[in-house]
Amino acid sequence: MPITVVKQLPAIEKLAEENIFVMDTKRAETQDIRPLQILIVNLMPTKEATETQILRALSNTPLQLEITLLYTASHKAANTTKEYLQTFYRTFDAIKENYFDGMIITGAPVELMPFEEVNYWEELTGIMEWSKSHVYSTLYICWGAQAGMYYHFGIDKETLPTKLFGVFENKVNNTRPMLLRGMDEVFYMPHSRHTTVPIERIREQKELEILAESEETGAAVVRSLDNKHIFVFGHAEYDRDTLQKEYERDVALGLDIEVPKNYYPNDDPRRDPIVRWRSTGTLLFTNWLNYYVYQETPYIIEQIKKMKDKVSHSCGQ
Asked: Which pLDDT tens digit goes with each residue over 209-225?
């Protein structure tokens, strides 16, 4: 939570330079607190495992969150029962009149397909278009990040020569944005994907900033300059055994799959994996919630559209 001090205290400027968030008393007095409305668009077939991972990452904050889980009605879930979806999830038609402070769009195992051939692409683009006026800030994960980059900024994905599979080192380019507050200059994050978004194309977009990258992963964390779109191309929310389960599944299917890099000690799958990304996941999710959602979203949630229109207009000047 922010530190609250008397307005114009000289230390405020110094602390701000050190990326420490300070709120003066005048601003604090005008702040009302209400639960944040967070929408999770879960595109993964293993819905229960994915929702557990994300909810765990979101729980490391004192903020009160009200979570709405959404599934795409245009896709028939093969690994989740209809009863489970009807009990715990909602469809876009059921929530499209509502407003949300934040939205998370997960990855999906459809990356080798052109976006337009994904059977729920039309529904997903409808959700992303709707979010422009009904969601304050969106966090996109893995394929969700690729889909958001393509829809909002016109940058298509490319197929990699081999699957990017393992836990990879990423270097922070800019420590100023609050999203990376508290992060080490080099951090680890799991990746599991056959495609990538060309980093040169991202650099060409004046509305985007690459916050972290590496030679192996390409762009790892990207933000739009208005902080309304946060793209994370890895899986900071993964459990200890997620990559192991993927590896064992592919081996059992007889697929040509390499041992996930930097995951097992000495890359030996007979040994227990080493978790190197837990703090990264905690910081990414909590910083996004605190600085890009809680500190910015309007108290009267229906004013989101008006605020986003104002920001878009000022950014265009």
From this structure: 999 999 999 999 999 99
Write down the pLDDT at residue 181. 92
Which positions make up the binding site? 163, 192, 249
Catalytic pick among 51, 229, 235, 246: 235
In a domain, 248, yes or no: no
SS3 275: coil
Residue 131: inside a domain, yes or no?
yes
The verdict on residue 253 lying in a domain is no
* 135 and 15 in a common domain: no
Residue numbers in the known binding site for substrate are 163, 192, 249
Residue 307 has pLDDT above 80, yes or no: no
Domain enclosing residue 7, as ranges: 1-31
Structure confidence by residue, pLDDT tens digits, 115-144 = 999 999 999 999 999 999 999 999 999 999
| Predicted pLDDT of residue 315 | 47
- In this structure, of 15-24, 188-197, 252-261, the range with the lowest mean pLDDT score is 15-24
The verdict on whether 191 is a catalytic residue reads no
Say if pTM beats, i.e. exceeds, 0.85.
yes
Please tell me the predicted confidence (pLDDT) of residue 133: 95
In sequence order, what E strands does the chain have?
Answer: 3-5, 22-24, 36-41, 65-70, 89-90, 100-105, 135-141, 158-172, 186-196, 208-214, 218-224, 229-232
CATH code for the domain of 86: 3.40.50.880
My answer on whether 22 and 136 are in the same domain is no
CA 11 to CA 20: how far, in whole Å?
11
204 part of the active site: no
The answer to whether 142 is a known catalytic residue is yes
Q: Out of 51, 123, 134, 142, which one is annotated catalytic?
A: 142
Q: Do 118 and 9 belong together in one domain? A: no
SS3 for 46-66, per residue? CHHHHHHHHHHHHCCCCCCEE
